[in-house]
What we know:
The protein is mainly alpha-helical and about 220 residues long. Helix content is about 80%, strand content about 0%. It has helices spanning about 5-10, 10-40, 45-50, 55-75, 80, 95-120, 130-155, 160-185, 195-215.
Amino acid sequence: MIASEKELFEDTPQRDVRKVILQMLGGAVFGFLFMIGLDYLIDMDVLFDRLSGPEILAFTFAVIFTLIGLIVIAMSFSRRLFMTNHRNEGASEAEFTGVKPMLRWSSICLFLYAAALLGLALTGQFDAGQKILVFWGVVLAMVGQSAISMYLWRSYDELYRGVTRESCATAFVITEILLFVWGAAALCGLQIAFEPLAVIVAVMGIYWTVSIWFVAKRGLV
């Protein structure tokens, strides 16, 4: 049976849109306050004057992942906050208890990404010995987040697995094209730098942008 125009435009989706807007505004306020606190602890203007473009982007990603991780872990301690997502409305205490480990492990994964990116963003400020520590820290962070990702994959339902498969496949294709063209431009003397950190930031940016797109497309936010 084909839905009528009235059914297609009933007010339930409109309430969801308003909720998403409120969530975005709340996230923006939280992020703004977080950045004010960070600027109080670290003179951001002085720091950014010392960083290159890719280092600033890596630092920015580290801050974003930290913010998201804080929100996710906060959700694991509050059923009310957890239910702000329209898919979780009316979740029982048992359902919330069951999803707590996933939320907490997901936040740890985000914190590991943030730590790795922060270390790489600040390598230019470190001496040789400190850079070695950053390297092994990044290795441990990547091993840790990979192990967590495999655990989370086993915990996902088919919907989340489908989103993960779609986002990974799409991100791979986009990344492959970008790296081929980017690398070719650098090798062919087009005066385009092929910096390792720029590559890392580009790959991370593509993957997370694509992931957010597919998550939103499936109505999971």
